[in-house]
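Quick question, first post here. What does this chain look like in 3D?
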Amino acid sequence: MKMIPSPWLGASRGYLSDWVTQRWVQLTGRKVDLNCDTWLNGPTGKTTGIGKDFFEILAREEGLQMSINAPDSGLIEFALLSSSDFDATQIQPAVIDFYERTSRYDLDAWGQWCGAFRPFGALLALIFSRRLQQLNVPLSPLDTSLGLTSEIVELVDEESKVHLTAWLRQMVGSGDVLYAGSYSVCRVPGHAGLCVKVVFPLPNGSALVFMKPEKHPDGSLSLHSTGEKFGDPGFYFLVKNADASISARYVRAMRESIHVYAAGADVRANHTLKLWGLTFLRLHYKLREKQSAPH
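> Answer (accepted):
Ran it through. Tokens below.
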């Protein structure tokens, strides 16, 4: 798929299409102080894009080492999600194992755009995703028919302390980056429990998703990025301003839910994305333990 070219506005503002989005955040969002609002901290991108090398470049800039798929490396320590309204120990062991030892799993994924939203997805790819090499959601099953790569990236210091954990997923057929995001457990001001925090670097800023966990009677897990106001779980844009201040925008209309469950020897996940209450995309994942992974 060819990209729609976007005029370059210079090193500080980047491409026109990105700058317009950033201006929307600046004009409709609020100024935040990351020294106080630490829950909004996370990696941010340069104006030129993201791509598969983002975390390697970040490691060099921060004086850290990069480790890829270290044995039994995972997205989060699952027990950290436990709170008064969520008991992490009651989740299916296979689901916990996936989150804690993600590097042991291979990944298949396919997407289904809903009705009139499919042209919208194609337009996003043409204007943003292909150029940025970030958030390249598949437009059809053919996009992921050759499979996906899945890498757990850890940025570590000389004492092997992990400073950041990221999950990099690429489509084998095209080489496009599906997702490049950091993962952690975080508390947001508007929710009593803990959330899974995902940060997707974007030009001059980031997209942040805070998802609250839910246990189902069968022990499966759902994560929901739903809320009503700034400070709640949900979807946020963050932009670095020219004066070094930070603007953030809570996008109440954007909501996600992910249902993760054991299915025989595999783990499955169904990911539903909604805009203004309308489902626009469904993603499905099959997570299977690698043949070489020791038991």
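The mean pLDDT is 93.
Residues 28-289 form one domain.
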